[in-house]
Amino acid sequence: MLKKAVGFLFIPFLMCITVAHPFSFGDGLVRASQGSSPISSLQTASVKGIRYWSNAAYTRIVIDLDGEVTYQDHLLREDPVLKKPPRLYIDLKLARLSPLLKQPIPIEDGLLKRAMAGQYTPAIVRVVLDLKSVIHYKIFTLADPFRIVVDILGRPGKAKKRVPKPPSLQRPRSIRVVIDPGHGGEDPGAIGPKGLMEKDVVLSVAQKLRNKLRRELGWEVVMTRQDDHFIPLEERTAIANTKGGDLFLSIHANASKNRRLHGIETYFLNFTTDKDALRLAAAESGVSPERISDLQLILYDLMLNAKVNESSQLAECVQRDLTSKLKKKYGKVNDLGVKQAPFVVLFGAKMPSILIEISFISNLREERRLRSERYLDEVATAIFHGLRRYVQNTRMAKAQPSWSISTALSSN
Ligand SMILES: [Zn+2]
Fold first, then answer.
1. By C-alpha distance, which of 247, 246, 260 is closest to 332?
2. What is d(CA 268, CA 247) in angstroms, rounded to the nearest whole number?
3. How far is the CA of 311 from the centre of ligand 1 (A)?
4. Taking a C-beta distance cutoff of 8 angstroms, is the pair 154, 135 a contact?
5. How far, in Å, from the CA of 96 to the mean position of ligand 1?
6. Is 404 helix (H, G, I), strand (E, B) or coil?
7. Which residues surround the ion ligand 1 when the cut-off is CB under 5 Å?
8. Is residue 276 within a helix (H) or strand (E), and if so which, with residue range?
9. Please, are residues 118 and 104 in contact by the beta-carbon 8 Å criterion?
10. What pLDDT digit, counting tens, does each position of 393-411 carry?
11. What confidence tens digit (pLDDT) does each residue in 253-312 have?
């Protein structure tokens, strides 16, 4: 099926993070005729790199280009006669391959053997993914810098069955939370009227929450960033998926041109007609407001696998604890409620996932609060209570080892 690449603009600070990937690849795929070609006079985009993150049941591949292209994807069944593995290939139209990309990338995890690319015709770059088994996949594009994201999922029941260990040898696994402090590095996020930066505030809350979850509940915590550096949005979700997170939360501080706006709101991934929610999703995803509809278009393809109900319940728990606990300490706290919108950082997340706007950094009073360690402690504690309540209220609790639950229930 021919798909039109759906691009949208990311704000300029993201542009400087695109670098040629150290991996290089591409052999046996070159069918381009030698010498000059009329194609060379056409505008083509250069395929600059391939990045990937993977575990046994999931791989995210990102193809980086320096311009927009259209693509066509095909899934080929295994050919036992020719001894060819099943393959997913993606033809990028009006594209050329960077000379740096010569060698295949060995992946060799549960789903993929390798990725490679070649100049298939003078106008087409073909990216080939050699698979280990038949898979389920989704493709979407992001822009500025333009990139094509391929999410590859194992099909439940098709994976090799492992012989389960007897219960006495099974190690109980606690809940694993992936915390994503928004922005970082050259991306400060929103900046308050007195200069406070969103990236610093959300990192601090994330660290406090991490420490509390580990210390008081014994949960495992994975942070998408530990310090002040930038990570592309698609990598944050890839971390959550490949690390096998049970829950994923992206922490942000809100901003509006209207400095009087204040309060707390929590989002989960879904379509919306709410203009303010769309504007926020665009801002948090680095997309110009004119192209926000592109995000909703991408969502049509992704919603099938999204954990909408669980995510909305998780959002309710966190939002309720955030507002009720902060009201007790600070009196006036505006509960803006649970909302839905197409945030890129939540695209393709396999677990219940939410994005929290802990306060408006653009509001003078809330910026002042966000400067206070005590307030950030209270915010982290309230999110902690919300997460714990969600786990207690859902089936996740039943799947947990008894020690983990008793710890959760006894701790306040
Ligand atoms: Zn943000």
1. 260
2. 12
3. 19
4. yes
5. 35
6. helix
7. 182, 189, 252, 284
8. helix 275-284
9. no
10. 986 655 554 434 333 333 3
11. 999 999 999 999 999 999 999 999 999 999 999 888 888 888 888 888 788 777 999 999
Instruction: Just give the CATH number of 2-154.
Output: 2.60.40.3500
For residue 401 the two structure tokens come to 């080892």
Amino acid, res. 411:
S
- Confidence at residue 293, expressed as pLDDT on a 0 to 100 scale: 83
Distance, CA 121 to ligand 1 centroid (Å)? 42
Q: Where are the domains of the chain?
A: 2-154, 172-410
Query: Which residue is associated with the tokens 């069955």?
Result: 161
The CA-based dihedral angle spanning residues 197, 383, 242, 224, taken in that order and rounded to the nearest 10 degrees: 20
The residue assigned the tokens 């945030």 is: 343
Is the Cα torsion angle 322, 323, 325, 330 positive or negative in sign? positive
What mean pLDDT comes out for the span 364-392?
Answer: 97
Q: Does domain 172-410 sit in CATH 3.40.630.40?
A: yes
Entry pTM: 0.83
Cα–Cα distance for residue pair 361/55, rounded to 1 Å: 37
Rounded CA-CA distance 383/375 in Å is 12
